[in-house]
Amino acid sequence: MRAIPEDSGFDWRRVGAAAGATLAALILLGMVLLVAMSNRARDQALERERHAYDVTLLVRTVDATLARSEAALGRFVLDEDRQVSGPIYANEWRLAGTQISQLERLVRNDPVQISRVRQVRELYTARGAQLTPAARAAANGEGEGGLVLFFIVSKGREGPGPALRAKLSEIASSEREVLRNSMEQTEFFSAQADRLTDYLSWLGVVLGGAAILLGFLAVQSIRQNLIARREAETLEHAVALRTQELSAANQALLTEAEEREAAEAQLRQIQKMEAVGQLTGGIAHDFNNMLAVVVGGIDLARRRLGGPKREVMQHLNNAMDGATRAASLTRRLLSFARAEPLLPAPVQPAELISGLTDLLDRTLGERISVKVQANGQWPIFVDPHQLENALLNLAVNGRDAMDGEGVITIATSDVALHEGEVAGLPAGDYVRIAVADTGIGMTEEVQRRAFEPFFTTKEVGKGTGLGLSQIFGFARQSGGEVAIDSAVGVGTVVSLYLPRGQAQAAEVRMHPAMSQPSRGDLSARSGARILLVEDDPRVRGATVEALEDLDYQPVACANAEEALSAFEEREFDLVISDVIMPGMTGPELIRNLKRRFPEVAVLFVTGYVGEGEGDDLKGYELLRKPFTVGALEDAVAAALGRAEVRAA
């Protein structure tokens, strides 16, 4: 038998090392290819997501543009400002047509969507044909100026207008379905890429162990053959290259993860914009309804000026009610957009709810029974007006949940809470005001999103999604909390927890725009000299007439510069200034005047308190637009009285 040479074992190790390196390289190459394929599939899914985002956003933009155009036409036919409203209507309507053309180009590769967009184009043309007679009549001053034609077209629940909005909603719904499927594919391929990354990491560990083993074999082989050592060194170099490639692949995955986070942030922004678009449509619908009441009431009253006074007053009261509702909606939007200063006062919850019962009965209707269970005795220190609004909102929500028929229970109780027993409230004494209904209840998903801004389960036009978020903000501002206990098919209990006598007095005294006059404690000086600074000529003229009716001596200015010049000519007892004006703002004007005339009384009038203006208004009376003559009288008297107290 022939003896086996000593170097035959070395040949076996060399072959094994070469085979192992080749196998590792093939596995690594396969893993890299799988990662690349997963990333490519994910990128394609992301591209479909972006396309769906673009289509959805453009559909909402078309809807909002059409709403703005019709709103401008409404102002045009109402003869508010034809030189402005007419061009706005025409420009917005043409812009909507351009946006529909953009939508056609965007969905040109989708046969189903392009068919829907073409139907939108036909409905857009038909809707324009409906609105054109009203616009033409308003422009030519024919008949009622297009008012009747506009109301006939805008009140219709069928025809091109509703069909156009429905078709836009259908396009958006289809794109949301595509978006949902694309997001699922993105998540699937991202998860697959993550798993492959883990496998690559383990492969790196295996390759590291193999490198150690091969190094050991190389040291053993140095004694036997120089060629074996060179092969071992080559293999070590190959392992180092593979490790570097793995590190680069990991870095690429991290970069792609950051890009995915950026895409998700963009998605959240688009969803917010979609919510704003839905809110805009709802507000436009509500304001059109309120304007219809106001315009209709005034028009009927004008037609019956020579008739019975009772009929004229009835129509005027209807118009005032519509204007009051519009002002209430505006205040709710402002309250949501920026926390308004509260007017806390000592309140007995049982007495407040008892005084609210008649209003609840009239608001909720005869089929809703309201039960009050006043078991608490502790007082609270909150804004009573805001608390009444919160309870009224909760009662209306309960009525809607019961489909207009059922029992609403409002109960008060005194509770001593432990730390963290209700949300994040600290331990202490609280008054619990619970509003319960026997309606359909809420699912867990609805309960989690109940306080989200713009979230609503009501139909479009019946809710803006601001009610519960406003209540949540009021409770938090008052140092309390809101809790929801609901079961599907059983009902819902919304509980307000308000601290017992823990609040601070308001630094800005607010006068609600439509409040009833309460002149018993106010001392007005008849014949006081008042300087009115208001940039809107219609508001300025109406306010001057109201002040003259109240036996004051008003002087009107259109801007701050005219007001400063007027003070150089004569002195005034009171300055009534708008807050937001072109050029110098109201607070800037008052700061300028106070340096020279520190004793002058001040009353601010505004429809919105902007960012950065709140501190400038502290210590002064503040009257909200729109306001009644009675509210103006109270605010003027309070401002003059505050100046007299300071002077004393």
Characterization of this structure:
This protein has helices at 8-77, 82-106, 111-140, 147-155, 160-222, 226-303, 309-337, 349-364, 384-401, 444-449, 467-477, 537-549, 560-569, 586-596, 629-647; strands at 345-347, 368-374, 380-382, 406-417, 428-437, 481-487, 491-499, 509-511, 529-533, 553-557, 574-578, 601-606, 621-624. Helix 1 packs antiparallel against helix 5 and helix 8 (349-364) crosses helix 9. With 648 residues, it is an alpha/beta fold. The protein has 3 domains: 8-289, no CATH class; 345-499, Heat Shock Protein 90 (2-Layer Sandwich), CATH 3.30.565; 509-647, Rossmann fold (3-Layer(aba) Sandwich). The termini are far apart.
Structural class: alpha/beta
First-to-last CA distance: 131 Å
Total domain units: 3
The total strand number stands at: 13
- Report the portion of residues in β strands: 5-15%
Rg, alpha carbons: 36 Å
- Give the integer mean of the pLDDT values: 76
What pattern of helices and strands is seen along the backbone?
HHHHHHHEHEEHEEHHEEEEHEHEHEEH
Strand order of the largest sheet: 8-13-12-11-9-10
Biggest sheet architecture:
6 strands, parallel
